């Protein structure tokens, strides 16, 4: 039995044993050029409630990634036009979305390369669908940890339940969007966040407003931080970071 057929058989056999609707609302992009594999992975993920889109080559995969803004990417390595490693590199320039790589390659060097480029997990073919599903759930859990009701960073304290913010113990008044922006920065302290990532997470993937919206809100937020405005630092050509 070929790897493709073995994978298909194992995957289809496992699919009916999963619980339905555990992935409701999660958008998954499957980038896979083998139509049979793409079909059974798509069917299996759809069965458990995920919203699935499929791309058959690397270039189409990047186009779909920009359009869909998925919560998870299942990415094959050996793709036509643009290979999976190059696709992953482009994704990581603009997003921290979880990525599970699928490939017929089992060599350690290829797995290490994928992980070094930012893949969250690596699943060689042939595989069972239930293992792909388990790995997908695991990387989604790792990327969406529980957020504490109170976030603190240096002189800043933010209460998520009451949407109150204090600076050196004094309350500062923020607009709803300024609060959301500050909360996102405080949830990812010291991480460099690109402008595109901030728009996706704070304004939403379908935002169609002004192109300088992030800069305008960062400037307004810095003014309200007064003597602590330097907490929000600009990384030229990349984005912003919350850093002492």
SSE diagram, text form:
Layout: H1 3-14, E1 27-31, H2 35-47, E2 51-55, H3 58-68, E3 72-76, H4 84-92, E4 99-103, H5 108-116, E5 121-124, H6 129-143, E6 150-153, E7 156-159, E8 164-167, E9 170-172, H7 176-187, E10 193-194, H8 195-203, H9 213-225, E11 232-235, E12 239-242
Parallel strand pairs: 1-2, 1-3, 3-4, 4-5
Antiparallel strand pairs: 6-7, 7-8, 8-9, 10-12, 11-12
Helix pairs in contact: 1-2, 3-4, 7-8, 7-9
Explain what this protein looks like in three dimensions.
- The protein contains nine helices and twelve strands.
- The chain has helices spanning 3-14, 35-47, 58-68, 84-92, 108-116, 129-143, 176-187, 195-203, 213-225; strands at residues 27-31, 51-55, 72-76, 99-103, 121-124, 150-153, 156-159, 164-167, 170-172, 193-194, 232-235, 239-242.
């Amino acid at each position: 039995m070929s790897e493709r057929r073995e994978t298909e058989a194992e995957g289809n056999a496992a699919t009916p044993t999963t619980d339905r609707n555990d992935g409701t609302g999660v958008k998954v992009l499957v980038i896979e050029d083998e139509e049979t594999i793409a079909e059974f992975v798509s069917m299996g993920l759809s069965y458990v409630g995920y919203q699935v889109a499929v791309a058959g080559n690397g270039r189409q995969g990047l186009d779909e990634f920009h359009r869909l803004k998925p919560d998870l990417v299942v990415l094959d390595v050996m793709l036509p036009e643009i290979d999976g490693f190059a696709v992953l590199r482009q994704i990581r320039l603009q997003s921290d979305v979880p990525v599970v790589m699928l490939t017929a390659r089992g060599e350690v060097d290829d797995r290490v390369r994928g992980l070094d480029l930012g893949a969250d997990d690596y699943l060689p073919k042939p595989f069972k669908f239930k293992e792909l599903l388990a790995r997908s759930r695991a990387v989604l859990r790792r990327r969406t940890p529980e957020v504490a009701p109170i976030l603190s960073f240096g002189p800043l304290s933010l209460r998520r339940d009451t949407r109150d913010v204090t600076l050196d113990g004094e309350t500062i008044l923020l607009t709803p969007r300024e609060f959301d922006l500050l909360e996102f920065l405080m949830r990812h302290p010291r991480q460099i966040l690109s402008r595109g990532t901030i728009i996706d997470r704070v304004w939403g993937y379908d935002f169609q407003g002004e192109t300088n919206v992030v800069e305008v809100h960062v400037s307004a937020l810095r003014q309200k931080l007064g003597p602590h405005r330097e907490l929000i630092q600009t990384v030229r050509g990349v984005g912003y970071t919350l850093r002492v």
